Amino acid sequence: MDAYIAEFIGTLLLILLGVGVNANVSLKDSFAFGGGSPLITFGWGFAVFAGVVVAGPYSGAHLNPAVSIGLAVAGRFPWTEVPFYILAQLLGAMAGAFLAWFHFSDHYNNMDDKDSILGTFCTSPSIPNTLKNLFSEALGTFVLVFVVLYLAGPTFTSDSMSDTVIGLGSIGALPVAFLVVGIGMSLGGTTGYAINPTRDFGPRLVHALVPIKNKRDSNWRYSWIPVVGPTLGAIVAGAAFLVLG
Fold this sequence. Notes:
Blueprint: H1 3-26, H2 36-59, H3 65-73, H4 82-103, H5 105-109, H6 114-121, H7 130-151, H8 173-187, H9 197-209, H10 225-244
Helix pairs in contact: 1-2, 1-4, 1-6, 2-8, 3-4, 3-7, 3-10, 4-9, 7-8, 7-10, 9-10
């Protein structure tokens, strides 16, 4: 499998199952309605597991622009590949969110709570505070990328993208799933821990495009925070890894 296709499919699975667990818990006609934060947190962890299992052997399973950028800053991934990985991740995130919406479309159309509908697709702060919200996303992503860097194995040396395993996949699907669950349980209550720019932006864009009976705006005023915050956190993690070795 081509590395870019692997990133697309892996991110699609991540977002399909992640947005899916959000919808399962938040949409009132679902049998899982009201399942709460623990179900969502573990659901996202298992979603990462699924994406990493598929993409890991072929692309390293970054599934996240912040991971690609953090690895590049640390010298463990070539900068020339970063834009292509990010594009594959964004398209995969949009495809996964679209499939989740279609799967639950009848439930969405029976839902009156516009904020809850939006919340199944993308993140928002529990207490709006631009600086603190930005810090929250940066901190969670720092933990993700910093830990991955210490477990990710050797530096990238091959010209063939199909030969590399640098990324989430190189620490194993189960450990990275536990890492994501841990971040969510410890730091996720402030902003919903996007810790992944395409995880938020792709589904937010799909929310803006798909037909839903009772739908609010997609809160684009906030949308830059789960993009910029994770990017900053990843850059700091990569730089800290270079300094600390």
